[in-house]
Structure formats: structure tokens, C-alpha cells
Amino acid sequence: MSIAKTDILNAFHYRHACKTYDPTKKISDEDFRFILETGRLSPSSFGIEPWKFLVIENQKIKTIIRDIAWGAKDKVTDCSHFVVVLVRQPKTLLADSEYVQHMMRDIHQLPEDILKMRQNFYRTFTEQDFSLTQDSKAFYNWACRQSYIAMANMLTSAAMIGVDSTPIEGFPLEKMDSILAEQGLYDPNTYKLSVMIAFGYRLNEPKAKTRQAFDDVVEWVK
What we know:
222 residues, alpha+beta, NADH Oxidase, 2 domains, four-stranded antiparallel sheet, globular, flavoprotein, NADP, EC 1.6.99.-
């Protein structure tokens, strides 16, 4: 497989946090499924995939999000597609949990001896290396970091096919999480809100991209 480096860099230059969407333009089903697929195929620590993507089409839910999330505002109603990214609750990510066992046995299809070895590695990682099991907030933040890998891949793949996007953290987390769960979008014992993403087509051209110089952010350690 070969993709021109210039095409990839052009996508990164094209991508920006879209401020205003054209409500008359919609992403095709094929293109949006492609974007979601790049999220699904994203890497995660230990291959645990602690995420779930909710594509919000319900207008009532969109209105609720608009009224609470200051970072979403008109984006949630004007964009083509709006995604709420969830992560699994810490107790479902413990080494002995049903979900982790399911991932290792049914999805990764590990032989029993390899499964036990990998489970022990995961247990050491979560209990000792990163001390996640000692702090549920730390475990939640770790799961969120995994979901941001998937989000970044979706933002990039969208840009590569000319679709705009906006990653959204502008909302009161606990309040938004509670309300979305109360609306029946998910079981709060299993999932918690991580981040939200708007996808669509820009109404106005953005300002030129600004970033720090390469040598200011990259240091070679020899």
C-alpha cells in the first residue's frame, strides 16, 4: 500500500476545528461509514477498545446538547453528523472483568495459556505500572486517552476526503454525562461520556493554520 506523503500532509493542513457548518450539505452514508470505520480500526492499549461511538440523529437529544454544551452550540444542529464518544467505566476494564475476558478470548482469540499471560501483563499494568485500579478517575482518564486516538484518526480520515470536523470538550462533563444517561443513551454503570465530535462541511474558509516551528517541538536525543 502506498499513499503519497503530500496527500497526507495536505489533509493535515486542510483540517481545522470548524466553527460554522453549512446546514445544507450532508456527508454521504458511504463517506461517514468510512470515517467511523477508521475509528473502529484504531489502536488502543492492550487492544482493549474501551470506546463506543453514538451517532446522534435524534433532534431532541441534539437540542439538549446544544443547550448545555457551550462548545457545541449551533454545530450540533448545523453539522451533517454528530458523534458522542463514550468510554467504558473502570470496573468493566479490570483484568478479571467480563469485558476484558471477552476481548481477549473472543475478539483477540488468544489461546488459553497466552490469554492468562496477557491478562497478567494487563493486571500488572493497571494495578502497578500506572496504578489505575487505585483511582477510578485515573482509570477513566486512561480510557479517554484511548478514545482520543480513535477520535484523531476519524478527524484525519475525514479531512482526507474533504470532510470538516470539530472535536468538542466544551461542556460540563458530569452534568452532560448524567443527562445523556438519563435520556437512555447508555447505561451509566457501563459507560461514561468522553468527548464529542461534529462532522460536516465548512460554511466559511478558516484562517491559515498556525503551529509552532518543527524545531520548537521536536528534539533529537542522541
